[in-house]
Design brief:
This protein is an alpha+beta fold and 494 residues long. It has two domains: 18-262, Aminohydrolase, N-terminal nucleophile (Ntn) domain (Glutamine Phosphoribosylpyrophosphate, subunit 1, domain 1, 4-Layer Sandwich); 287-334 and 345-453, Rossmann fold, CATH 3.40.50.2020. The protein has 18 helices and 25 strands. A hairpin with a 2-residue loop joins strand 13 (242-246) and strand 14. The longest helix is centred in the middle third of the chain and has 15 residues, at 283-297. The model is unreliable at 1-16, 101-107 and 339-350 (pLDDT under 50).
């Protein structure tokens, strides 16, 4: 049975998660460990929240050379059998989980699944990329004009072709050459026969961390994946840094012009796992603090504070603690429900959200309920949840949202609807309240969000510490390809 198309969230069996923003990729790599592929598979499993459509692993063994496996679906369904893992020998390996943004939607072609591999004069190299190249169309047109033959529709493949055309004498230097031509966001894990390489773009939009595992090393999108393999967190890769790791240890380079970092603030709100550490801060604690700030900014008389599971839970706890209103699990999530399990016949066509979430009726009936969620994107799921709460007998429903209104698309590696599909781009907060049919609706302010992530005075409009373009329209890197297609950016203030 085919999966529902996530571009059409009103499909009767669209997941509740389809009305969320989705981080597009997770990357992981190890060197100097026996059976590297097993470590990579475990790391990718921990990063599965960053991409569920497809995954791949590449390894190298001195006798067998490079080996690769790329599959559609979840890590647990593809990279746990001994038969598959025996085809991936070696002490060095990298992997990637994908939730498509550039390239074919729905990961319909195996050729779009990373890591990508290239054979160069000095040997082979594989590359896994998290982020988005905003000048990929421009680069692709130039490269094809100069004779390059692309095998995928992914923006990431541009890096391989740029490396192939470099005149540098080794892979790390060719990668530096290539990435100096690239605009946008990139956290990259790459490998040669003997080296593991990690790179972040100069703004450090997407995360990348370094860990130590026994006598070997690991690179990962998040610290939670280091935990699962028993690795010690060493440090974050700095914005604009390249690390090259071999048997001798770790070398660090700063090959790009330095800029003020603009890490993605939505990593704190939703993308990263709550047990990860970002910028020295617990993601869980930051989300709890968002709830605290939200309670201060948007109080309301009510009987219960309930999270929209699971991403709204830490903020709901913070809201409850600050407001003194009891926290309760008013909505229960079915953890064992897949995306589909039954034909969408007429009799059950409206059960989509109810298959994922169920209201705790005995708790909700007659109560004034505050629902805390991480974001409102299209609003389709929020309306259905409100209807479920009302059907269960709630006296009032108040939404509190742990991020500012999402009014602008992301071009740096996040799957975002077109701007006119974003509820906040066409409606005021009060209009959204009426559209959702709730008694009140409040979002945390941008200043409040900045305070929650540790910027005590809020957002510095002249020099913000994070990329918050999805809320503010302030894009730190001009989305060249999209502007060429007619996208209108915010006009700078006089």
């Amino acid at each position: 049975m085919p999966l529902p198309d996530r571009r059409f969230p009103d499909h009767p069996f669209a997941s509740i998660d389809d009305d969320k923003l989705h981080e597009e990729c997770g990357v992981f790599g190890v060197i100097g460990v026996t059976d590297a592929a097993n470590f990579v598979a475990l790391g990718l499993h921990a990063l599965q929240h960053r991409g569920q459509e497809a995954g791949g692993i590449v390894t190298h063994h001195p006798e067998h050379g490079f080996s690769s496996a790329r599959r559609f679906g979840l890590v647990r369904d593809n990279f746990t059998s001994q038969k598959v893992m025996e085809t991936l020998p070696g002490e060095i390996g990298i992997g990637h989980v994908r939730y498509s943004t550039a390239g074919s939607k729905g990961a319909t072609q195996i050729r779009d699944v990373q890591p990508f591999f290239g054979e160069f004069a000095m040997g082979g190299a594989a590359i896994a990329h998290n982020g988005n190249i905003v000048n990929a169309d421009e680069l692709r047109k130039e490269l094809i004009g100069r004779g390059s033959i692309f095998q995928s529709s992914s923006d990431s493949e541009c890096i391989i072709h740029l490396m192939a055309r470099s005149y540098q004498k080794n892979i790390p230097e060719r990668m530096k050459d290539a990435l100096r031509r690239v605009e946008g966001a990139f956290s990259i894990v790459a490998m040669t026969r003997t080296k593991l390489i990690g790179v972040r773009d100069p703004l450090g939009v997407r995360p990348l961390v370094l860990g130590k595992v026994g006598d070997g090393w690991a690179l990962s999108s998040e610290t939670c994946a280091l935990d699962i393999i028993g690795a010690d967190f060493v440090r974050e890769i700095k914005p604009g840094e390249m690390v090259v790791i071999n048997a001798s240890g770790v070398e660090s380079f700063m090959p790009f012009e330095q800029r003020k970092p603009r890490f993605c603030i939505f990593e704190h709100v939703y993308f990263s796992r709550p047990d990860s550490i970002l910028g020295g801060r617990s993601v869980y604690e930051t989300r709890r603090q968002i709830g605290v700030e939200l309670a201060r900014e948007a109080p309301v008389d009510a009987d219960l504070v309930c999270p929209v599971p699971d991403s709204g839970t830490p903020a709901a706890i913070g809201y409850s603690q600050e407001s003194g209103i009891p926290y309760a699990m008013g909505i229960i999530r079915n953890q064992y429900m897949g995306r589909t399990f039954i034909e969408p016949t007429e009799s059950i066509r409206n059960m989509g959200v109810r298959l994922k979430l169920n209201v705790n009726r005995a708790l909700i009936k007659g109560k004034r309920v505050i629902l805390v969620d991480d974001s409102v994107v299209r609003g389709t799921t929020s309306r259905k949840i409100k209807e479920m709460i009302i059907d269960a007998g709630a006296a009032e429903v108040h939404f509190r949202i742990a991020s500012p209104p999402t009014a602008w698309p992301c071009f740096y590696g996040v799957d975002t609807p077109e701007r006119d599909k974003l509820l906040a781009s066409t409606m005021s907060e009060d209009e959204m309240r009426g559209h959702l049919g709730v008694d009140s609706l409040r979002f945390i302010s941008l200043d409040g969000l900045y305070r929650a992530v540790g910027e005590g005075k809020g957002r510095d409009n002249a020099s913000p510490a994070y990329c918050d373009a999805c809320f503010s329209g302030d894009y730190p890197v001009k989305p060249t390809d999209m502007v060429a297609k007619g996208f209108k950016m915010v006009e700078p203030a006089e």
